[in-house]
Every structure is written in structure tokens, then in C-alpha cells.
Amino acid sequence: MIRDLSLHLVTDPVLSGSRGVAETVRAAVSGGVGVVQLRDKGASDAETVDRLVELSGIIDGRARLIVNDQLGAAVSARARGARVDGVHLGQGDASVLRARELLGPDALIGLTANRAEHLDAVRALPAGTVDYLGVGAIRPTSTKPDHPPALGFEGFRAFAEASPLPCVAIGGIVPDDAAALREAGAAGVAAVAALCTSPDPRSTATEFLRNWRRGATPRVLSIAGSDPSGGAGIQADLKSIAANGGYGMAALAALTAQNTRGVRGVHVPPAEFLRAQLEALSEDIVVDAVKLGMLANAEIIETVIAWIDAVRPSIVVLDPVMVATSGDRLLDAAGEAALRGLVERADLVTPNLAELAVLTGRELGGWSDALVAAEALSAESGAALLVKGGHLPGDTAPDALVDAGRGIRREFPGARIATRNTHGTGCSLSSALATRLARGESAEQAVAGSRAWLRESLRAGSGLGVGSGHGPVHHFAGLWERGGLETRPSAEDIREAWWGRISGVRSGIDRLPFITALADGSLAEAPFRFYLAQDARYLREYARVLAEASRLAPDPEEQAFWAESARGSILGEMELHASWLTPERGIVGETSDAEPAPATVAYLDHLRSVAFGGDYPELIAALLPCFWLYTDLGSRLRAGALHPFARDPEHPYASWLDTYADAGFAAAAERAIGIVTRAASRTGGEQRARMLRAFETSSAHERSFFAAPMAEEGADRA
Ligand SMILES: Nc1ncnc2c1ncn2[C@@H]1O[C@H](COP(=O)(O)OP(=O)(O)O)[C@@H](O)[C@H]1O
Ligand SMILES: Cc1ncc(COP(=O)(O)O)c(N)n1
Ligand SMILES: [Mg+2]
């Protein structure tokens, strides 16, 4: 059976200080620790057995309890009724074969490993002997001084990639390491000092898990009924999970024959088949969160309880479905009693008002009375509750999150949305919650985010035109409206596509008389002077447009880049005047401040008009050809690609050629290309098209600019 190995607490009597091991374990498990490893090198077997019995009572099935090294103590504690799930063995300890034999096939058995030969030994074992490897130390650690030199994250990654078993990282790990270790291939992290010395192990455990979950796509399982109309049940669950960023799976507890007007039949397959579905999943897939919906009867509920106790998923959200919006019963009376056994195994329960009344066995007088009843149920069960006010009369539809254990009591007000499309809102909301919690959101963040998504889906539901009764919500409305569904090209794809789009312009520039004469060194002074004078004019105005890009930039890094480029452009212009547009070179005053030629005016007017539009992505796309084309042309010229003489230091324009083959300029061009193509990749299709148009227009102006010095009017005016 695959287990969720996300977060382990390895106990340490010294580091737990005056709070002691038992209270450290209690707090850490309530914060979400999934595996408690009792480790006390100094304790006798008898002391360890007593400690295991005590911890088993504290943990009460909400996490797995294993013991370090002392296999005998595990067996003895089990004999005294303690719930000991397994052992973690070191390289020199009792054999894992013996442990598997003594503790059975469902025990959780871990083995410390950190060298290649350990992996060879593990490969030689019968499959299923060891469940996971404890791999470390990630950092030098005080809790295991005899440990080999620290592995570091990359050392861990290499080991995990070579390992045939899931690897749990250990050794000096703090909450901030969790995401990076998961990305490095860890199946979980084990903390010792970080949890034992924490003043608040519960919140430290929660922080570990939040970081662990962030950035990964949660694998969310719905155990519920089928609604062929797609608005409720597992069909709604799968859509809701996907719309909120998860990977959805579904085990069917019941089938219904229903549409938007109501339920006309319920078929409940044998509970044994639900168990078979669940076992198939948990032998192969780590489930990050479970959502429980329609469970039909007591036997099904007992089956789910048994599976939860065996697998112990990190997050359980229970939507206590009893009666459909249409008024049809979806859970029989015996089932309502059995449901209470699920409430205490849930992290979050989402009853509407009628369901809350059944769970608390009380008639509810109204909203405030419901909150009081919810507070009591939360305190008694340990679960948080989201009381749903969708069925309240009047024009508001508030929800309230009540978590007695965390002292949370927060109402989420909201106007009722005028729509008949409210079928499956409860199913959809609870699935969204399970997904968001599994992504590392806090309960309050998950409720706020799920509600916002659901309200957007509610508003768009009637547009689907599904059924004549209570229609469904539109689970992907927001995504479709925000253009989220189109496939975004990557920045690399865009770079390749845009460069291809101007290949005609680029080969056109290579063939221009000005360029070919520049390359073979035959270019006369007059057109060259004309070009330099125009370039000086251009650079001064180009600097202003770059400064505007800096002003519009969305983040400091891009703001700094465009500002630096503006400065570089001004310095370039000054350099031109200082070293080229000088009397020594026979260039008299008026040429150095020549009137801008038509090509120069047209190019600058294009840049200014885009800048005036204030659209940052479009503006930087317009600015890009000046970087990109110049660097490309300059480096090819210098390399002799257009004419071998251009490589010669005796070339009459060698120093000019050096300017545009300069590595610093090439690096700046690479930065600009990256910024622009990433912006184009992130934005929607319409703006991306505008960016490309601006880019192509500027490229055409570049070609005109290089054509001007040898054009009819340009040549005789110089
Ligand atoms: N007309 C509505 N306007 C706004 N929110 C609604 C509306 N109907 C339902 N909701 C939201 O959907 C949630 C679940 O709906 P509700 O009908 O209370 O649960 P269930 O579908 O389980 O009976 C409500 O708590 C509320 O957040
Ligand atoms: C299979 C199934 N599961 C749950 C519900 C409750 O949804 P709602 O309360 O919105 O009718 C349903 N109608 N069908
Ligand atoms: Mg419901």
C-alpha cells in the first residue's frame, strides 16, 4: 500500500525539553505530521514499550506511529494494545526481513540509506520488504553526530533518482527546505530539531506541509455518487478539482438516475466493490486529499472509514450529502448515524443547514444558532466546519468557517446570486476546498478562493442551457473567459517564430548596397557620414523611448534593464559625436546635427506612437529589433560572414564594426530578447499579436534606415 509520507516527526527527548516527547507529538500531529518515529537511543525496551502505549493513545489513529531500531518493543507494545504501525531501522540494526516477518505486510518499514551500496542491498530484498528509505543528512545535524558528511540537496536528488524506493529526506531540515526537497524527488521530509525545539510544533508542522504542498499539483480523490447530468456528484467533483488546480480521481460509491429536475433512482453497488476500487488506487497512487460526497448507506460509510484508517490521507473533506437540492434523500437513516464516525476523521466538514441539524441532532433556530451548534460539533470532533448558508431565506448566501481547535470563527458574507443553476454547488465547493487545501492554502484562504471561484461559476451556469430544473454551475467559466484555455506558446517558441517572421527583412538588409559596401570596405565616406549622423539622431530619441519602457516596466529588474539601456543609448550617441562626427574626420557642424532623414523620422514616429499607447509589452516588442538585428548583423559582419575583409583589422570601418560586435551589447540583446519573449508567452493571444506587429514594423524600419544612406536623396545630400 502506498502511503502519504509527506511529514515525519522523529522524537528526541533532549530537544523536546520541558514540554516532553508526548506533548510535542500531540501538537505536531494536530498540525498534520503523518508519521511519528519514536527515537530514543537511551531508553530501555521496557521504557520504549510504555512510551509507545502512551503515544498510541495520544495519536489515536490520526498518524502512523513507528519506532526507531527497537523491533522487540514494537511487538511488545502491540501485544499491549498499542497501535504501532512499524519500525525504522538503521543499517546496523535488526534485519528488515525479520521486521517484515514480525510486523506483517501492512506495517510501515523504513530503512536508513545514504550510500550506493545501500541501494544495491535494497534491490536484493524481496519486493515490499522496505516501504521507504530515510536519506540524509541533508545538512550537518546535531541529532545524529555519527552521520557521514552532509548530502546537500543535489546529493539527495542524485540518491533519490537512483533509488528503487521512495526517499524521505532527513537531517537538519527546516520548513523552508520542504518545497526544494520535494522538487529534488523526496517522497517526504523528516524533522527532528525543527519540530522538537519549536515553541509551537503544531504551526511548524503546518508550515512544513504548506511549503511541501505549494507548487505541486495535488492528487485529489473523490469518493461519491454519480450524477449523469454532470452538475453534481463525481462529475462535478472532477471538474471542480481540475478548475482549482488539482488532478482529480473518483471512486464510485453509488449511481443515481437524475437530471436537473430531480433524482428518480439510486443504485448502490456492493460495498466490497468500493473497497476494491480504493485498494487499487492506494496500491499505486499517493492521494494528497480526499473529498467524500454521497455515500448512500452505513455499509458504504464503514468501508470508507476502514480505508481512511488504513491509508490515512493527509486531508479529508467531508461533504455530508444527505438530501439533494431536489429534496430527494441520498443517504438512508442508518447512514446518518454512521456519518458521525466520518466527521471525527475529517479535517473539514461542509454541511448545509439541514445536514448540520442531522449531524448535531438539534433543531436549528437560524443562522446564529447554526454557528453555535457548529462550534460545539467542531470542538467535539476536532474537525473544522464550513457551515453553508445557501439554503437560508432572503437575499444573502453566507458561509461560516468554524474551527474550535484553531479558534477560528469567520463568516464569509455574500449576496445571493439570482439563478436556478444551483445544482451541485455543495459538491463543487467541497471539491474545490479539498484541492486548495492540498495546494497548501490555509482553511481561510481555501474558503475564500473556493467561494470566489464558485460564485463566478454560479453566475455563468444559466448560460450553459442545461436542463429545465436546477441547472449546473459552469465550472470553467472563469478559465474560459480569462482566455486561460488557449495553449500558450513558450518564450523559446516565440523567439524562434518571431525571428523566422523577419527572415525576409534580415536577408534584405544583408543585400543592401550600404551593408555590402560596408562589409567589403568599399563604402565611400559620404554615405557612411550620412548614416552616422542619422544614427546619432536616432539614438538620442531611442533613449527617450527606452526610458518610457523603464517607467512602464512591471518589476524592478526590467525597470533597471530599460533604464540602463537608455543610458547606453545616450552614451552611444555621445561616443559617435566624440569619435566619428568630428572636424578631424572632415565632418563639419551641420552633419553632426543633421536633420533627421525620412527613414529616421518614420522609425522614431513608429516608436513614439507605440510608447504613447502605454502598452508595455507592445512597446518593448517595438524596441527589440534595434537590439536583436544589430547584434546579429554586427557579429556576422565582424566574423566575415558577409565578406572576409570585414575581419581584417585594416578594414577602414574596423572600429565601427567592433562596436556592434561587442559582447556587452550581445548580452544586452539576449536580456531584451528574454524579457520580450517571456512577456509575449505570458499574455493572451490578442496582445501577443499586437506585440508581433510592433516587432515586425520596427524591423522594417531598421531595413529602411540602412537603405537610406545609399538611396538617391540620401547619397547626394550627405
Ligand atoms: N444562489 C447562490 N448565490 C450565491 N452563492 C450560492 C448560491 N447557492 C449556493 N451558493 C454557494 O454554494 C454553497 C453550497 O450551496 P448549498 O446549496 O448551501 O449546499 P448544497 O449544494 O450542499 O446543498 C453555499 O454555501 C454558497 O456558498
Ligand atoms: C450523485 C449526487 N451527489 C450529490 C448530490 C447533491 O447535490 P445537490 O445538493 O446540489 O443536489 C446529487 N444531487 N447527486
Ligand atoms: Mg450538498
From TrEMBL:
Residues 227-474 form the Pyridoxamine kinase/Phosphomethylpyrimidine kinase domain. Residues 513-708 form the Thiaminase-2/PQQC domain. 4-amino-2-methyl-5-(diphosphooxymethyl)pyrimidine binds at residues 37-41, 68, 112, 144. Keywords: ATP-binding, Kinase, Magnesium, Metal-binding, Multifunctional enzyme, Nucleotide-binding, Thiamine biosynthesis, Transferase. Binds 1 Mg(2+) ion per subunit. Pathway: Cofactor biosynthesis; thiamine diphosphate biosynthesis; 4-amino-2-methyl-5-diphosphomethylpyrimidine from 5-amino-1-(5-phospho-D-ribosyl)imidazole: step 3/3; Cofactor biosynthesis; thiamine diphosphate biosynthesis; thiamine phosphate from 4-amino-2-methyl-5-diphosphomethylpyrimidine and 4-methyl-5-(2-phosphoethyl)-thiazole: step 1/1. Residues 7-195 form the Thiamine phosphate synthase/TenI domain. Mg(2+) binds at residues 69, 93. One of its GO terms (molecular function) is kinase activity. The keyword Flavoprotein does not apply. InterPro entries: Aldolase_TIM, Haem_Oase-like_multi-hlx, HMP/HMP-P_kinase_dom, PM/HMP-P_kinase-1, Ribokinase-like, Thiaminase-2/PQQC, ThiamineP_synth_sf, ThiamineP_synth_TenI. Its cofactor is Mg(2+). PANTHER family: HYDROXYMETHYLPYRIMIDINE_PHOSPHOMETHYLPYRIMIDINE KINASE THI20-RELATED, PHOSPHOMETHYLPYRIMIDINE KINASE. Condenses 4-methyl-5-(beta-hydroxyethyl)thiazole monophosphate (THZ-P) and 2-methyl-4-amino-5-hydroxymethyl pyrimidine pyrophosphate (HMP-PP) to form thiamine monophosphate (TMP). Belongs to the thiamine-phosphate synthase family. This is Thiamine-phosphate synthase. The lineage of its organism: Bacteria, Bacillati, Actinomycetota, Actinomycetes, Micrococcales.
